[in-house]
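Following up on my earlier thread - several people asked me to post the actual chain instead of describing it. Fair enough. Here it is, all 103 residues.
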Amino acid sequence: MASNATVQIDGPRACFTGVLDREAVVALWPQLKALPRTVTALDLDAVTRLDSAGLALLAELAALARTDGRTLVLNGSPAGFNELSAAYRLAPSLDFTAPTAAS
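Reply from S.P.:
Thanks for posting it. Predicted structure:
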């Protein structure tokens, strides 16, 4: 089944729509891996839900921005976001903050 997710760059925002799942990540990654440095916010208001692959995509975009000295702001909280963020112990900035069990 093809993904219905889209992303549009609108000035400083990357506006996502649809479901951010594994299929969406595969479809959107070629466009997003070179996210313009002018993007400072990820708008998730039109995302209906996401899975762990969708969360990983957002975390990767946030990590790439951090390497450029930017912090991406997240707008919106689709179904699954809070639960998965807590399960993976991600900070609101989508940075992994918890020490590992081995430490």
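The longest strand covers residues 41-50. That should answer part of your original question.
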